[in-house]
Amino acid sequence: MNYFEKLLRPNIARLKPYSSARDEYTGDEGVFLDANENPFNSPYNRYPDPRQRVLKAKIAAIKGVEPGCIFLGNGSDEPIDLMYRAFCEPGVDNVVSIDPTYGMYQVAADINNIEVRKVLLTADYQMDVPALLAAADDNTKLLFLCSPNNPTGNCFHIADIEAILKGFKGMVVLDEAYIDFAPGKSFLPRLAEFPNLVILQTFSKAWGMAGLRLGMAFASPELVQVLSKIKYPYNLNILTQQTALELLDSVSEMENWVKLLLNEREVLSAELAKLPFVKKQYPSDSNFLLVKTEEPRKIYQYLVGHKIIIRDRSSVALCEGCLRITVGSPDENRQLLDALKKY
Ligand code: PMP
């Protein structure tokens, strides 16, 4: 029995996935009369590869993991939702999450009618490991971590992540959406050590592909098989798969964007520090800054009036008085600073 088989919802364990005639034919060339497609309007007339074999092989080579350990989704929001659907019985099971963190863990839980037990971070935005473990009971199937965390921006201590993985009896979802901005800090090289670990990454941030929706979940082959059988068959469209393949040929371009954005983050932070209404900035391992200001709501609204949109996080637990600012291009950051200087 797999580590997680006893955790799976029985209907998911029993599920027979949707099958297509092309499961038995993997060639690119052929006369395809099996799926009621239109023979005209190539290449978009054909359904995309439901198993995303070419793209997975390329991601596997770059990430140094086996293709069988990769699930690809319509953004990383898709595997978040699928984890609930695979493991959590609506109205019965629960999950534990750090707080504050990315809002979709709660929204996906609400859609699936699952209780979220939130455990506040410490004052320095690290995890309270004993409290997280104590919040779990026999019906706690998932535990959500996010490192670097949104909206606090920081990475968690590796020893704490390890302690959660060892101490928690369910599945741990470690969301690394911003990890490309924290080189060397990914937990991915240690994936095989923990059968209960799922690592999420995305093409939406450092890879600059938010509009095409491509997220990754790295996990044991057994868990990847479960997620694959419950996803919509054609969850990744042809354009997304092709564009990602091209982008993956130029990893150095992504690395240059990251370098530029990390440099801009420091420039932006230094300039923000000079503004009289900026009270505090938090250390960031990501492409955004969490900034404590006087009158955060008024600053947010003032900027909207100048067509500059940032995120008001001032009513979020432990982020009182804070604005979250994405690091933009040098020109965008200049526009932001010019506006703020006139506030
Ligand atoms: N995780 C975190 C922590 C995020 O901040 C976001 C996007 N804001 C996502 C996941 C979602 O990413 P995707 O675009 O891949 O769905």
From TrEMBL:
It is an enzyme of class 2 (transferase). The keyword Amino-acid biosynthesis applies. InterPro entries: Aminotrans_II_pyridoxalP_BS (IPR001917), Aminotransferase_I/II_large (IPR004839), HisP_aminotrans (IPR005861), PyrdxlP-dep_Trfase (IPR015424), PyrdxlP-dep_Trfase_major (IPR015421), PyrdxlP-dep_Trfase_small (IPR015422). Its EC number is 2.6.1.9. Residues 41-340 form the Aminotransferase class I/classII large domain. The keyword Transcription does not apply. It holds the Pfam family Aminotran_1_2. Keywords: Amino-acid biosynthesis, Aminotransferase, Histidine biosynthesis, Pyridoxal phosphate, Transferase. One of its GO terms (molecular function) is histidinol-phosphate transaminase activity. Homodimer. Belongs to the class-II pyridoxal-phosphate-dependent aminotransferase family. Histidinol-phosphate aminotransferase subfamily. This is Histidinol-phosphate aminotransferase. It comes from Breznakibacter xylanolyticus.
